[in-house]
Structure formats: structure tokens, C-alpha cells
Amino acid sequence: MILKRSLVITLGLFMAMFIAACGGSTTTGGGPYGSGGSNPPATHNPATGGSGSSAVIQTATVTVKGQSETVLTNAQGMTLYHFTPDSAKQSACSGACAQTWPPLVFTGSGGPTSSGGV
Questions:
Q1: What is the pLDDT of residues 58-84, one digit of tens each?
Q2: Which end of the chain is more exposed for a tag (fewer CB within 10 A), N or C?
Q3: Beta-strand runs (E) in the chain
Q4: Does a structural domain hold residue 73?
Q5: What total number of domains does the chain contain?
Q6: Who has greater pLDDT, 14 or 3?
């Protein structure tokens, strides 16, 4: 009798785990680099460089470790960053890193600017 009861309980637990495992995912993706959070872009402040640049820089609000942060994005919503090389002869981001995080190349005169709260 005890063996039968244990078997029923064990099967019930396995069924519960199976059903829970078949449930939908609540994550928003982002792959190995995390997610930008569920917050839509806070503002779209286009900031073009100079007369020769067609790059558009926007701001977006993302959640990083539970806190809202403002980041720069390109026209496609990809996160931008500024990187200062570790040395004059070698960049820390090349090859696969540079393919995953391609640079925004500024071709205008002067320097890139932003309008808004960045």
C-alpha cells in the first residue's frame, strides 16, 4: 500500500514538472548578450554628425541589473558604445567582437553630437 501511494505521488510530481516545462517562456530574448528590457525607447532624438554623415543616433531606456539606464542606439535600435583602445597598437574588440558590436563610423566634420538628455 505504501509503495503504491509513493508511486502515485512520484508520478504526480513528474507530471507536474513535465507540464511546467512545457509552458511558454517569459523571457524577451536577447541571446547571449542579454535583453534590452521591455521598456520601449524613451525618446527618439536624432543627432546627425556633420554635413557628410547620414548616421542617426537615438536614445533608449534599458534595464541593467534592475536599474533604468539611458543608452545610445543606431537607427536600427542596436546599442552603440564608445571604446577607447587598450593600447595604441591593438584594439580589445576585433574579429568576432567587432562583427557582433560593429562600430558606428562617423564621416562628418567635427564630432558626433546628441540632442537631448545624453
A1: 888 888 788 888 888 888 888 886 544
A2: N
A3: 43-47, 57-64, 67-73
A4: yes
A5: 1
A6: 3
